Predict the 3D structure of the following.
Amino acid sequence: MEPINSSNGGADEILVEQHSHAKIVLLNRPQKLNALSFQMISRLLELFLACEGDCSVKLIILKGKGRAFSAGGDVAALVRDMSEDNWKLGAKLSHMEYTMNYVMATHNKPQVSILNGIVMGSGAGASIHGRFRVATEKSVFAMPETVLGFFPDVGGSYFLSRLPGFFGEYLGLTGTRLDGAEMLACGLATHFVPEERLSLLEEALCNANSSDSAIISAIIDEFSQHPGLKEKSVYHLLDIINNCFSRRTVEEIILALEREALNKSNGWISSTIKSLKAASPTSLKITLRSIREGRLLGVGQCLISEYRMACHAMQGKVSKDFMEGCRALLLDKDKNPKWEPSKLELVSDEMVDRYFSKVDDEDWEDLKLPFRSNLPVHAIAKL
Amino acid sequence: MASSLDRLAFRTKILTNHLLPTSQTAPPLLPSPCLNYTPPDLSDPSQFDTRHMRALLDGHNLADRDWLFGLITQSKLFCPRERGVGRVFVGPDYNQSMEQQREMTMRRIEYLLERGVFEGWVTGKGPEAELRKLALLEVVGMFDHGLSIKLGVHFFLWGGAIQFFGTKHHHEKWLRDTENYVVKGCFAMTELGHGSNVRGIETVTTYDSSTGEFVINTPCESAQKYWIGGAANHATHTVVFSQLNIDGNNHGVHAFIAQIRDANGNICPNIRIADCGHKIGLNGVDNGRIWFDNVRIPRDNLLNSVADVSPDGQYLSAIKNPDQRFAAFMAPLTSGRVTIAVSAIYSSKIGLAIAIRYSLSRRAFSVTPNGPEVLLLDYPSHQRRLLPLLAKTYAMSFAANYLKTLFVTRTPESNKTIHVVSSAFKATLTWHNMRTLQECREACGGQGLKTENRVGNLKGEFDVQSTFEGDNNVLMQQVSKALLAEYIAAKKRNRAFKGLGLEHMNKSCPVIPSQLTSSTLRSIEFQTDIFCLRERDLLSRFAAEVSAHEAQGQSKEYAFILSYQLAEDLGKAFSDRAIFQTFIEAEAALSSGPLKDILGLVRIMYALISLEEDSSFLRYGYLSPDNAAAVRKEVAKLCSELRPHALALVSSFGIPAAFLSPIAYNWIEANSWSSVQH
């Protein structure tokens, strides 16, 4: 492997290996758990766009070096920039990242992401939109943004809302972690391949010489297993989750959980309530609205909406919870964020509405997504 | 010349091939490339903010609507089915038997109940609670009209009757249980022999002072209760409308509560129930017939807000005038007319969204030999079929919102306005819906015949709207009658018109320019003038004709009946003008920008298509034949101006993809062999 552009700082954080038919893209920032930096996102976007017109590329394999696929965005760096009162840098990053998410979701070549490790936040955004997601026994998935005072972005309102029943609301609001078997069961992963077989799988994919989804799927099938869910898996609780997380408001969701707790004492319920109480109340409300709206929208519209929300969160005019969450968890690490408003009932509908409206700033514009043509059927279905 | 040479060359080639049959240059047969589905969303980017437009059209409770859309799409109970890759559609399974469809309706109600959808539907108070309820009912109706009708009967008719006709002890006893479906209510008003004429019903109730009970009886076959939604399978209780006869004196129609089934679903003694049978639509609703065989109910079961009977059998009423007493009983039917008018527009939106999306991806015929085939909506004739209906649907969407506002902020003083406006809009909007669905069905060609594509099926499901809660023709006559009463009162007492939007009658009569230019035709002033002119002229013509009949010795009632032609024209004129007014108000509330511009274009189309379609403009000379021709030309121009916005205009309806149909999306993939094998 060789760096694609060694003259640029941090350029070796994305390594590309060109096989005769496939391109293997490696996220190579293991000491940061492959957190996606501005440069990495920019490079990924460039790469994916270039692959579309390149007949020699039939397939893109995306994987991470070390124990993570990608643990998220480079939030610490972002927050440093924003503490200098410059939210527009954050907006620029989101603009590029969401564009990348869109390009991946609507790509004309199949993307196979090998999720052998941590997949969170931006990491999920760089993989779940692709055609194939291969989980392993080491996979750990989460969208943990609400505890940071943010919300599941990078297309989370699209892919979480498409999960069975109200599992997406549950994952998005609580930031619950899933293992590989659970990812497969709920549809976040399309396949489960044991880690020891990954190199064989990669080899087979590189020899495939096809962009046909059915052929690629059959190849991955050959290496796949159907792992059973653990006895304690949250996915066994889908009925309770549906019953509680289908409620109209966050307050009613918590009430429903508390009612369940009266019926049967259950460690799951109390830990769920606990994680909801730890999250930013504003984040919970905008997250719920975002998933509910996103369920009815195409992936492009979801990203446009999330871009509005992200800009509002970074601008900090409605609430400064994002800065506060980053301070408490990433910078000062006192793990004691002071949310403002501090309670759900203090977050009004009007405040929530503002996150979904245009940002009041002279040179702010809605996310403009690139024009796409020549789309495969599965990408058309996402529009 | 060139083409005849081409033909010559072509013929020569064919002849040569015949003469030299062993031609080795003939190309091998190649599979022709499949048509490509191109999502219109890519080629027709929106020029305005469709989210903002959606907010304007839906008007209220957007997040609540989205929540309910999600509750429906995320549950297996609503029959999600994947058609093609990654597209899931919901909708009732019409392949099920009538009995199965009814059971599914009930199971869906139980699911929605359990998720808290109906919280506050009966016990909630104030405009906010009412608007929320209306919004949720609209969403349910977009999934299945039958489901919303079943809910409407239970909550609006049964629940509404108890609220409006009942007093405190009825409220305490029944409302909470109604909201939680502990009791399942129905509403027994219509009989085999009497529908719109409720005052003629034949069911009789007498009072037995020795036991303190009312005795309800069906005296003859034409008195059997008919079309009673919920009665055939599920309802446990009903409101019964009946003549109240005390000691041989008939006090007119009153409402009573009677139990018809026990908690286990067994029919009560002295009640007979039969099914209304299979229908052209709404088979998920269990319409039944009821006979009462001297059914005894406690005295308390008289819904006594309007009139009461003392334990010893004295008839007591605060409203002495039987006409007014009857009018008070009709109040809950207003809510029905409001919800019907609104749901008709949502049904039109579904039809148009499907037909227009299809017409932006389906091609037919080439204009040049070997040229690409042309998109259906690029044919001016296809635009003319669909885009005026789209503009009307926009106009009526604003009208429906106005009607809802009027209803939820009602006062005793606004009752008359609500009655007239709801009658006019219910008739106009439901007729518009049926017409729109038929046009959309035809515009979808053969695909429109498939139940999964919804449009054709909606015709059967929504046809009933022109009949229930007041026959459309009867309602429109009532509108004209009410306008006539206003006219006579104003002239007699020489006082100004006030209310029902008739204030324009106080001004001098508008003058229409003799030659209408394009810019005049497009101006709000001209459009307002001509709608007002038609209404005021028809009103005075109508009044004159009625009084002419009266002068010839006809009774007032018969004079009115004889003047039916003008009554019909006048009702339409009132309705069109009132709808137009709600449109210009919605437009005026916007600050200038792309949204206002596009809405202006749609409003112009609404006004001009109304002028073109209604022959009364020519018949009575509001438009000269030349001007009518100018209107027609302008409509064609408007069609091509609206064409680039067609997709954005239907996207603004905010209907989730899952509630549309396969032909609205990738219909090639949805019909592919691989999707057959799934």
